[in-house]
């Protein structure tokens, strides 16, 4: 990829945390758990941001609960694989959507207004999404506080992408997770 070129169609699928030289694989963690499959023999891009990447051919993707192993087509030496650790892997969003038609990628939640479904009051705006082993955590912020909200069916009741709103059920103890913002 040309350096400095904007990569709007590239989506993050994880961070390379280790390599397997014997199998010519890079191993990803911190990946969207909703991604369950990806096609074989597709181009991936590896780099520190989607604007500055190097292209590789992914021969296969092996999914486990804890990681995604990517079998690279070209045989790379350990000295070529090792520098890839801590870099992100990106693929074209069409590959993700084609293989996982109902997926909502983490970045699609950003800037959605969070509404308490019971009171119809705005709580804040989603500013970040964290992946955990259990589920996604939506980070909601307003002028007063930051609030982590689990993206689970007991809490998230409706997502209206057209109107940029997400409706949640404020379950018992949820508001106890608020962290007050420090005044500057």
Architecture overview:
- With 184 residues, the chain is mainly β.
- It folds into 2 domains: 10-99, RimM (Elongation Factor Tu (Ef-tu), domain 3), CATH 2.40.30; 106-180, Roll (SH3 type barrels).
- It has 2 helices and 13 strands.
- A hairpin with a 4-residue loop joins strand 11 and strand 12.
- The relative contact order is 0.16.
How do the strands of the widest beta sheet line up side by side?
Answer: 11-12-7-8-9-10-13
Task: Give the CATH level 1 class of the largest domain.
Answer: Mainly Beta
Structural class, judged by helices and strands?
mainly beta
- Proportion of β residues? over 45%
- Can you say what the CATH homologous superfamily of the largest domain is? RimM
Nearest-integer average pLDDT: 89
Poorly predicted ranges? 1-6
Please state the second-level CATH architecture of the largest domain. Answer: Beta Barrel
Q: Report the end-to-end length measured between terminal Cα atoms.
A: 41 Å
Helix content: under 10%
Number of DSSP-assigned strands: 13
């Amino acid at each position: 990829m040309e350096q400095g070129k904007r990569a709007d169609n590239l989506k993050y699928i994880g961070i390379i945390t280790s390599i397997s030289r014997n199998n010519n694989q890079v191993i990803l963690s911190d990946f969207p758990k909703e991604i369950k499959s990806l096609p074989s023999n597709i181009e991936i891009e590896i780099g520190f941001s989607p604007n500055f990447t190097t292209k590789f051919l992914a021969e296969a993707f092996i999914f486990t609960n804890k990681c995604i192993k990517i079998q690279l087509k070209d045989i790379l030496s350990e000295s070529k694989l090792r520098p890839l650790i801590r870099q992100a892997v990106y693929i074209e969003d069409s590959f993700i959507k084609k293989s996982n038609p109902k997926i909502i990628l983490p970045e699609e939640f950003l800037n959605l207004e969070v509404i308490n479904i019971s009171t119809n009051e705005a709580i804040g705006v989603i500013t970040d999404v964290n992946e955990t082993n259990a589920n996604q955590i939506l980070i909601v912020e307003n002028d007063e506080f930051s609030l982590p909200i689990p993206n689970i069916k007991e809490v998230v009741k409706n997502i209206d992408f057209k109107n940029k709103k997400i409706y949640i059920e404020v379950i018992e103890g949820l508001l106890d997770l608020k962290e007050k913002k420090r005044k500057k």
